[in-house]
Amino acid sequence: MYYRKIQIICICIYIIMIGCDKKQITFHNNVKKIIHTKCAVCHNPKGAGPFNLISYEDVSKRSKMITQVITTNYMPPWPADPYYRSFLNEKNLTINEKETILKWIQNGITKGEDTPNHILDSIFVNKNQDKPDLQIYMQKTHVTNDLNTDEFLMMKFPFELQKDTFIKKIEFVANNKQVVHHINAHLITYEENKKKNIFQGEYVVNTEIFSDDKAFQKMDILNDDDTYPLLTPSVANYLPGSEQTEYPLGIGGYRAKKKNIILVNDFHYGPTPYPERDSSYFNIYFSDSPPKRQVQETQLGTFGISKINPPLIIPPNEIKKFTTKATITQDISLLTINPHMHLLGKSFIAFAVTLNNDTIPLIKINNWNFRWQYFYTYKKMLKIPAGSEIIVEAIYDNTENNPDNPFNPPKEISERIGFNGKGSMKTTNEMLQFIINYLPYQEGDEKISLDVQ
């Protein structure tokens, strides 16, 4: 009888514990913070996501879909292997975060008592308070072709200021995310009396027809005496899934003159079977002081400082590995990196090997996804000693088993070199790039956090 009572008590305690566990996991107390940190960054009114994931109603009505996408690791997208190297603002769910969401759904999607949206505020409210000082729009709305083919354009965004001005950040805003695939923008600044009219000339040129020199002539980019103005490369970038890179105060920034042009030398519109309209623009944020440390950029592979070995040619029905390497000649502090391949990409790994034969992991992507390409920023500056060799290894799958293969049956795909000496950026051709943003190393850099929150 005594043991029977003990058994009943234990069962009651177990039932109470289960009940407490169900009540314990609620949207506002447990799930909201995860959703706002990992999902709402894209799933908000101004984000890339097709619907909002902000409120309880947003999330609860999609609970079945959420169960499916997080169980299969389809969402949230984060291609980089977190066990190889961690980065700022990682979107992948931890095991505990995934279990919390799934238990919440299984236990009946309890709403719970509302709590302040501190995470949401840090994502949206603070950013919205940082209003741009200037917005530069296209001179004319662009209408894409209806041939279901890629478009590669050079486009200029001229702007004038009353005086020389320090710029903290230049941000590209894609107006039509359905067709804007990627951009790379430079800042051109004109010295006093070197350029009378920065608005004359064509504002857009097809780079598949004209070389850079011809495009510059048609757009009237050069100074009036036919000399070249100062060009600062890669002041703004945009890729599928990417977010604007921002560094702590004092790192990065530019100096604009009275007359300037933001030159998008690679404006890629994806294929569409009917005309689409786009009015993308740039936000410019001023600074009261000059940048203390100017960010520098280089890249390995396609368009870069290192050759690809063997040459980037992928025969049909083959899975093939390629490598590219570059030696670092000075101590540097890595800030942000960007791996880039096209549809045949299968995996990507980059690491540095020091003169002491130590390996520094940089990034590893086990399952390449062309749709999700990020600029990955390290949590703290990462020192790469002089003499180190950065090594990139990439595997491409040109078989019928690759669901992203643009050809069926498979065809030979390569890194095409055009008449202007450039590699082709067409999605159906291939690229192998590893872009790095860095600073010349200073003592103590490895202790500096790159988190701007």
Describe the structure.
- The model has no long low-confidence stretch (mean pLDDT 89).
- By secondary structure, the protein is of the alpha+beta class.
- The protein is globular, with a radius of gyration of 25 Å.
- A hairpin with a 5-residue loop joins strand 17 and strand 18 (359-365).
- It has 3 domains: 2-129, no CATH class; 134-293, Jelly Rolls (Sandwich); 297-447, Sandwich (Jelly Rolls).
- It has a 5-stranded antiparallel β-sheet with strand order 6-3-9-5-7, with helices on one face. The protein has a 5-stranded antiparallel β-sheet with strand order 13-15-20-17-18, with no helix packed on it.
- The chain has helices at 2-24, 27-38, 56-60, 63-71, 95-106, 118-129, 212-219; strands at 134-137, 142-143, 151-160, 165-173, 180-190, 204-206, 230-238, 254-256, 259-269, 277-278, 281-287, 296-301, 308-309, 313-314, 318-327, 332-340, 345-353, 359-365, 376-384, 389-398, 413-414, 433-440.
Radius of gyration: 25 Å
The CATH architecture assignment of the largest domain turns out to be Sandwich
Mean pLDDT: 89
Q: Order of helices and strands, N to C? A: HHHHHHEEEEEEHEEEEEEEEEEEEEEEE
Poorly predicted ranges: none
From the helix content, strand content and strand pairing, which structural class follows? alpha+beta
Global geometry? globular
Number of strands: 22
CATH class division of the largest domain? Mainly Beta
Tell me roughly what share of residues is in helical segments.
10-25%
Rounded to the nearest angstrom, the distance between the terminal CA atoms is: 62 Å
Per DSSP, the total helix count is 7
Please report which band the strand proportion falls in: under 5%, 5-15%, 15-25%, 25-35%, 35-45% or over 45%.
25-35%
CATH topology annotation of the largest domain: Jelly Rolls
Counting structural domains, the number is 3
* Main β-sheet, spatial strand arrangement: 6-3-9-5-7
Biggest sheet details: 5 strands, antiparallel
